[in-house]
Amino acid sequence: MTSKNIRGRASSVGAHIFLALLAVLVLIPFVYIVLISFGRDFLNVSGYGDLGFSLQYYGQLFTETKYLYWLGNSILVAIATMAVTVVVVGAASYVFSRLKFAGKEALFQIILLIQIFPLTLMLVSLFKIFAMFELINKLIGLVIIDSVIASAGLVLVARGYFDTIPYEIDEAAMIDGANRLQILVRITFPLVKPILCIVAIQSFVLTYNEYAIASMLITSGAEHMTVAVGLQSLINGQLQQNWGMYCAGAVLASLPILILFYALQRYFIGGLTDGGVKL
Amino acid sequence: MKKIVVVVLAVFSALTFLFSWNMPSQGTLQAEAAETKTIRVWGSELTRENDVIREIAAEWSAQTGVKVEVVDRRSLFDAPNDLVNNAQTSERPDIVMMQHADIGDLAANGFLLEIDFSDEVKSSFDESAFSSFNMKGKQYGIGYSVETYGIIYNTDYIREEQLKDITWEEYFELVSSFDALNSSGGAMKGTLINAKNMYFMYPIIKNYGGYYYGLDEEGNYDPYDIGLNNEGTLEFVNTMKELQAKGLLLPGRNDVDNDVSAAFGNQEIAMLINGFWQNSFYDRKGVNYAIAPLPKNDDGSISKPYATVNGFVINAHSNYPEEAQSFLEYMCSDANQQKLIEAGNNFEEKSGSRFPVNLSVRESAYIANDPLYSVMAEICENVEPVPNIPEGDIWYNYTDKAFQAIFYGDLDGSPVDAQKMLDSLAAAILSDVEKMNVQIEAVDVPWWAYLLIAAFVVAVVAIFVLKAIRKRKRLGIVAHKVNIRLTIVAYAALLPLLGLIAIFYMFPIVHNIYLSMTNYSSLNLVDYVFIGGYNYKEIFIEGLQGFASMFLWTICFAVGVQVFTFIFGAFLGTVLDKRKIVVAKIYKLIFILPWVVPSVITLLTWKGILATDNGALNGLLALMGGGNVPWLENAWLAKLSTLFVVSWMGTPYYMVLASGYLKSIPHDYYEAATLEGAGRAKIFFSITLPLIFKAMLPTLIMGFIMQFNNFGVYLLTAGGPFGSELGAPGATDLLITFVYNLAYNSKSYGLAAAYSVVIFVFVAAFSITTMCLSNKKYNEGR
After folding, report:
1. What predicted TM-score, i.e. pTM, was given to this entire model?
2. pLDDT tens digits for range B717-770
3. In a mutagenesis test of the B interface, which of A116, A127, A174, A198 is the best target, namely the one with the most B β-carbons within 10 Å?
4. Are the beta carbons of B494 and A92 separated by less than 8 Å?
5. Exposure of B450 in the CB half-sphere (CA atoms within 13 A)
6. What ipTM describes this predicted complex?
C-alpha cells in the first residue's frame, strides 16, 4: 500500500517536472516576443540588437498605424465566422453522424478530398468569384470564405467526435418518445459541447491568422485591413522591417484568442458531466 | 436552452448591425459617383503622405468639381498584383503609386495608360523620373521619389576627404587597412560587405565590366544578353574573395544586410554601402554618420548605384483617364511635390524614406541645407534604375544563391568553382527569360473533347450510383433503413455547407484546372489562350528533376509531423487529465500558446533561436562547452529542426482535441485494464491512443493534407539550405513551396496551376489509399 503511494507520488512529481520543463520550452519564444516588443532583443532577431527597454513600439502602434481598426475588423470577422462555422459544422456533423442517407460516405470523402487543393495556389480563381458576387473590399466576403474553409475542415474533426457518442442514447430517448429535434437539443448538444468549443476556437484562430485571402480581397485602405494583414505590412513594408512594432502588435493580437480559450475552457474540462450521462 | 437561443440571436443581430455600420461608405460612394465624377488614388503605406495627397486633392476638387478618394495602402509591393485584380472592377483605382520596376508586366498587358506629359512637367523633373517609367519608348508614368545608396561612414573615424574622389580600388585599400578601437573598446573594422546581394554589389560588378542585362542599339534592355558570367564578374568575385580573406565579408552564409547595419550601429565597422533606410536606428544607437557618393570606377568614370523610383501610373481601364491625368499633373507641380516629399520624410524628422526627383524640391532648403540629403542629391544625379522590363526581376531568384555558393562554398563546405557557378547563373536567368517569352500555339478544343468530358462525368456518376446500389443489395435489410425522406432532410440540412463549398471551393478548382491548360502568364495576363496539355508536358519532361526526393521528403515531413503531434498531443492531454483542474488549466493556457500566436512571429523567433551565429541555442551550448551547431545550415539538421518546430506548433491543437476526446472514453475500459495489471504506458498505447485515433482519423488525414501544403516552413528556412545547383530544391523544400517558386519564377501561372493539379492527384491518391487501408484494418479489428 505505502509503496504504491510512494510510486504514485514519485510519478506525480516526475509528471510535474516534465510539464514544467515543457512549459519553459513553450514559453521561451513567447517571452522573447514580449521582450522584443519592449525593445529588448537579446538574440538580434530584428537585426538591430538590443535597444533598451521602451514602450515606444506600443505607442507607435496606436499613433502611427490603424491598429485598433485592424483588431476590430479581425475580431468582427472572426466572431462572425465562428458563429457561422459552429452552426454549420454542428448541423453537418450531426447529419453525417446520425442520419443514414444515400451518398453519405462519398459526400464526406469528397469534402475531405477537395481540401487537398491548396487555396493559396488558386487565389486568381477565387478573386474572380468574389468579383462576380461583388464581395471585394467587404468584410462579409471574408466571413464567407473563412466560414467555408473552416467549416469544410472542421466538419471532419467534429464528425469523429459525434461518432463517439453511442447511438443507443438516441434510441433510448426515442423510446421515451422524444423527437429528433428534442434529442438534438437536449441530449446530443450537451454531449458534443467540448468539440463545438474546439470548433469555435479553431475557426476563430484560422480566421484571425488568415493572410493570403484577406490581403487580396481588402484593398480599400488601412482601416479596412485585418490584423494579420496589418501586422505583415509592418515587416513587409518597403522601408523598414519594424520588428518591435510587429511583436507589440502580435502580443496584443493574441490576447483575444487567449481570452476566448479561457472563456471556453470550462466546457471541455466540464465535459460529459454537464450532460448528466455517465457512460 | 432558451438562454442560448437568446444569446445566439443577440450575437447575430449585433453582427448584422456592425457590418452595416462598418461599411456605410459603399452605398453612399456609389450613389455619389453617379452624380459627380470620382477618381480613386492608391497612395503609399505612409499615412502622412496620403494625407497630403488628400489635401492637394481637396484644392483640385474645388477647382474642377471632380472628387478624389485616396486609399492608404499596405505597401507599394502589392500595388501591381492588386491593380491586375481590381483594374476592371467597381473598386478600380485610377492613379496608382508603385515602383518603376513593377511596370513591365502591367505595361505588356495593357493595364497602364500611356501618358503624354506637358513640357512644363517634363522640364521640372530629373530625367530619371521619366526614363524609369519608360518602356520601349512609351511613357507609362512619372517618378516622384528615388531610393538608392552610397557609402555611409562613421564621422568619428572617417573624414569626408578620405572618401572624396577615390576609386573602388582605393576604397578597398582604405577598408582593408582601417583599424581602430570603438568607444567601448571593441575592435572596429573598415567595413562588412554582403557580397551575395547584387543590388548593392552591382556598381562594383560593373566597375570590372560585368553587367546584368545588356542594351540593344536603341538603348533598351536586351534580356538575352547576360553579362554575369564574363571576365568582369569573375574579377569582382576574385576581389571579394580577397576581402573575404581579410574578414571584410559577412561571416555567415545566411547573414543579411540588416546584420551589416547592426554592426555599423554597434560601432563594429566604420563604413558600409547602404541607403537611408536604417537612419533612425543609427540615431538611436548614437552613431555620428554621414553619407558619401560611391567611389569612382577604376577608370575614373562615375560609378552608378542601382536605384528604385517610386512614382505614379494611371490605370488604362480608368473611367476618367483625362481627369486622372489632369490630377496627376496637378500633383506634379513644384509646390505640391515639396509638400509630398516633406510629408513622406515625416517633416523635420527626416526619416529618409523619400528622396525627390523634382528639381526644384532638390534645390529647396529642406533638401539642400541638410548635410545628408544634399549629398544624396549629388548621388541621384547619376543612378541606374533597375531594369523595368518584365524580365527585370529574374535575378532575385538566383543571384543570392549563386553568390552564396561562390563565397561560402557548397552545403558540405567544399569550395565551388566560381566561373562554373557564374555560367550556371547566367544559364538559369536565360532559361527563365526564354520560358517567359516562349510563344505557345493556341489549341482549338475539338467538339469531341466536350463529349469526352461529358462522358467522363457521366461515367464517374454512374460508378458511384452502381457502387451504392451494389452495396445496398449486399447489406440487405439494414440498408433499407436509408429512406428517401431522411435523405432529403439530410441534404436540406447540409445545403448551406454544400452550396458554399460548391461555389467557393469547386469553382476555383475547376477554374484552376482550366487555367492549367492555358498559357496564363505574366505576359499573357489578359489574352491567355487554351494550349491543351503543354504545361503538363513541361512538368513531366523537365520539371521532374529532384521531384522524387522532394516528394519523399514532403511525405516524411507530413507523416512525421502528424505522428509526433498526435502522439505527443494525446500524451499531454492524458497527463493533464490526471492533474488537478486548476493546475491543468494553467498548463493548458501555456501550452496552447504556439497554436494561438500568429505563426509568422513564432517561426521567425525560432529562426533566431536556431541561428548558427549568435543563436540562443548555440549560445546555451557554448555555455556548456559545446561548439557551434549549424541547425539550419546543414541539410539533415535543417530537416530535423523543421520537423521539430512545425511539430512544436502543431501539438497544442491535438492536445486540446485529445483532452476533449478523453472525456468520451468510458471509465470501465481503464478500470478493466488496471484490474488486469496493465501499466500506465500500456493503457496509454493500447487503450487511449487507439480509441482517440479511431475517432480522429478524418482529422488526422486532414492535418496530413494541411502539413503537405504547409507554406509556413518557408519563413523558417526559405526551403534551404541550398546546394550549388541553381534551381534545384533545397533540403527543406516541400513540394508546394518548390513548385510555387518554380512556376512563379518564370511567372507562368498556368504552369503553377498545372503543378497544383499534379500535386492534387498525388496527394489524393495517397490519402485515398491511406483511408482505405485504415478503414479495412479498423473493420478487420472489429
Report:
1. 0.86
2. 877 788 777 777 788 888 888 877 777 777 788 888 888 888 888 888 887 887
3. A116
4. yes
5. 4
6. 0.84
